[in-house]
Amino acid sequence: xxxRHVAIIMDGNGRWAKKNALSVAFGHRKGVEALREIxxxxxxxxxxxxxxxxxxxxxxxxxKQEVNALMQLILEYFNxxxxxxxxxxxxxxxxxxxxxxxxxxxxxVQASMDTxxxxxxxQLNIALNYGGKxxxxxxxxTISKHVLENKISVDDIDETMFEKYLYTAGQPSVxxxxxxxxxxxxxxxxxxxxxxxxxxFPKTLWPDYTVEDYKGDLQAFSKRERRFGGxxx
Length: 233
Known about the structure:
The protein is of the alpha/beta class.
């Protein structure tokens, strides 16, 4: 059984670079190479939604050199991959506050969403300038505003309505969360959507994470018994 929605925290680029006596920027670039293969395979086997944690709201606190390298990679990735993604019917959605990105990056990611807006294949969520707490707070603020404007009533608010105010509106919840590098935390990523996600924490650093590793994690997921708060019958 395949998960409908896979989320990946691509962790370990910096440690991979240090391990190989290379710059952190090169580690991130190597991580992009690993990313391409995972996206292609996910699309080929019929994963409905793939969510990738690319840049968090907290990542702005990293060194200026590393942030600049990551921003440059965003431009390079979308410019080089958009044609293939579009040809493969992949629809891109950006999770996060794109208005907080520099102008070139903001315009590039918006163009990618516009180009693929009518595609009906795998939905590719890329979290940029994203924080799970910010997403939830943003939803609460918008709902509160709509209540004050009499667009909705308090009694209308339930899970179904709340989810319409999230970046992932209309998408299924996360079934499988993978974080590479062995770190066992979710770091403010998709807090609401991961409420009942199965979680795997392979020790492999992200640049070394292969399609074969991914296949193994998908197989491990297929063996999990998901109870969603119930008991085994």
